[in-house]
Specification:
Elements: H1 3-20, E1 30-32, H2 36-45, H3 63-72, E2 84-89, E3 95-101, E4 112-117, H4 127-137, E5 142-147, H5 169-181, E6 186-192, H6 194-204, E7 213-219, H7 225-232, H8 239-256, H9 258-261, H10 264-270, H11 274-279, H12 283-294, H13 300-307, E8 320-325, H14 337-345, E9 349-354, H15 375-403
Parallel strand pairs: 4-5, 4-6, 6-7, 7-8, 8-9
Antiparallel strand pairs: 1-9, 2-3, 3-5
Helix pairs in contact: 2-15, 4-15
Length: about 400
């Protein structure tokens, strides 16, 4: 074998080692929390956070591989939990659907419902959602999953709008409906990526919320669309590639329902240009041509500020936990500063930072083939228990205050 060939092989191996980040070592998650009692509850109920997170050895230390595998494959040995689909009609004519999955193990004394908001263009049928639902059912939790408007192919769009990054109306309608159907249940809001932004914004908005809502958990969100889109528009860390995929998914969803969303009446009412929508190459271009006009904002900056959970963080009244991975290729590190500051100052608030995991990946175990249950699935179920314990303690404290 020639020296040139050997050199080429050596270069390829070096590149693979670099891309797969195989020199990295497992690390214990970092927790920021200035509320010692809340932190004690977290570590008591979720001892997994005191342990090293060990990604799948060959490829799990690469945030890109974790992210891409999550988006293409989802989870291994994925179950298909059986749920009941509920249809709601909102005042604007929008048909909202959500799926209810009841506990498999009914031996647990508490009635807890996990109200799940999936990521962009995802539903209850998304593989990572199904895995988390199944794991939660076996731990005695009822799961309620919002199906983003326009994503399910067998559910028609009945009003001239889809889901969006900052519109919390669909999630709010689901939570209110669940609270009325199960008045004794306590509700924990859980959101993945875009869904994390929605549940955080919902909890921080000045809206009347059911007293059943006891806390929230946000996973892998970017907190600020204003700043986030600036990073996604450049090629550093291949972010522009991920932006392209998200843009095409959103555009395809719009075009799938073009008879309703782009009817002559709707285009005239909202001053929409169908050619601009179809030719949009990035999410900001698509939001300029479609999203901000549907939401009736004058500028894209106003639309993004209204959409971003960052501007609602300080008004959240219930205990809140945020999770982000440092190697998430979609969420750059500067976007995490506001939530770190929040966790350092606000009671009943925690920020969990994981060195690896990518964007919603968090595969663990094995050399090549990961465990069927991810680190994230295990951790989230434990954290729901933490919020339940904190809710009990807050109720006791409130009761003692009333007696005094």
């Amino acid at each position: 074998m020639s020296t040139v060939v050997l050199a080429a092989i050596a270069v390829i191996i070096c590149i693979l080692f670099r891309l797969l980040n195989v020199n990295s070592q497992p690390q214990t998650p970092t927790i920021l929390c200035n509320d010692n009692k809340f932190l004690d509850n977290i570590l008591k109920i979720a001892p997994v956070l005191n342990e090293q997170y060990i990604p799948t050895r060959l490829w799990g230390f690469s945030g890109h591989v974790q992210t891409i595998l999550h988006s293409i494959i989802g989870r291994v040995k994925c179950p298909w939990p059986i749920g009941e689909r509920v249809f709601l009609t909102l005042q604007d004519g929008t048909t909202v659907t959500y799926d209810v999955y009841h506990p498999i193990d009914n031996s647990f004394p508490d009635d807890i419902s996990i109200a799940i908001c999936p990521g962009i263009c995802n539903t209850s049928e998304s593989i990572y959602v199904r895995t988390f639902v199944h794991w939660s059912q076996y731990h005695g939790y009822r799961c309620i999953v919002l199906n983003h408007v326009g994503v399910l192919k067998n559910v028609p769009v009945t009003a001239p709008r889809l889901f969006s990054y900052g519109n919390t109306d669909d999630y709010e309608a689901m939570v209110k409906n669940i609270a009325s159907k199960y008045p004794e249940t306590r509700i924990v809001c859980v959101g993945f990526s875009l869904g994390g932004n929605i549940i955080t914004k919902y909890l921080g908005e000045k809206k009347q919320k059911p007293s059943n809502v006891i806390g929230g958990i946000s996973i892998c969100q970017g907190y600020c669309a204003l700043e986030g889109t600036k990073y996604l528009l450049n090629w550093q860390n291949f972010r522009r590639f991920y932006l392209y995929v998200m843009t095409e998914n959103m555009k395809n969803t719009i075009l799938r329902h073009r008879k309703i969303l782009l009817s002559d009446d709707v285009k005239k009412r909202y001053n929409l240009n169908e050619h601009e929508i179809i030719s949009a190459a990035t999410l900001p271009e698509l939001d300029e041509a479609y999203g901000r006009k549907l939401s009736e904002f004058n500028t894209i900056s106003e639309y993004y500020k209204w959409s971003s959970s960052r501007f609602y963080l300080n008004d959240i009244k219930v205990p809140m936990i945020f999770i982000n991975a440092l190697d998430d290729p979609i969420v750059p590190l500067p976007l995490l500063e506001p939530v770190k500051k929040l966790a350092a100052e606000k009671s009943n608030t925690a920020y969990i930072e994981v060195a690896h995991g990518g964007h919603l990946g968090f595969y663990e175990g094995g050399l090549i083939y990961p465990n069927p249950v991810t680190w994230l699935d295990r951790t989230l179920v434990a954290l729901v228990g933490c919020l339940t314990l904190s809710s009990d303690e807050l109720a006791l404290k409130s009761g003692s205050d009333i007696k005094v």
